Amino acid sequence: MQLRADLDLGFFNQIGRGHFPEHVGVSITGVRQGSMQGSLPVTPQLMAPNGYLHAGSIVTLADTLAGYACVAHLPEGATGFTTVELKTNFVGATRDGTLHCEARAVHLGRTTQVWDATVWSSDGRDKTIALFRCTQLLLYPKPP
Questions:
Q1: pTM
Q2: Where do the domains of the chain lie, and which CATH numbers do they carry?
């Protein structure tokens, strides 16, 4: 599936306004064929009680980018998607800086899409924090 030309960086930053992505601070920084990039500043509100970034914050960034990327690559006639599976491997931790993420297409089919995302921290070490994969089921209007 090709990247939809009518959906640009501004569109994806706008659709999160007033919703969870804006609430936590997700920003979309790039939209290209087969990928999407974004970031999330590490703030005290996103920390777990143990003093490290809450795992849910990391998943939120990766899931948002994979979901938006799915929208950007919907085939003609599809009206949306729903996530049917997601998995995250946490391979690092951070306490400050900014998280960065890139979601990349693994499979862009007519009924499903699979996206991999890598999340890393720019806390001075630029290390990978998480590896994420999700499968999206594409939705179509029901026939009359």
A1: 0.95
A2: 9-139 (3.10.129.10)
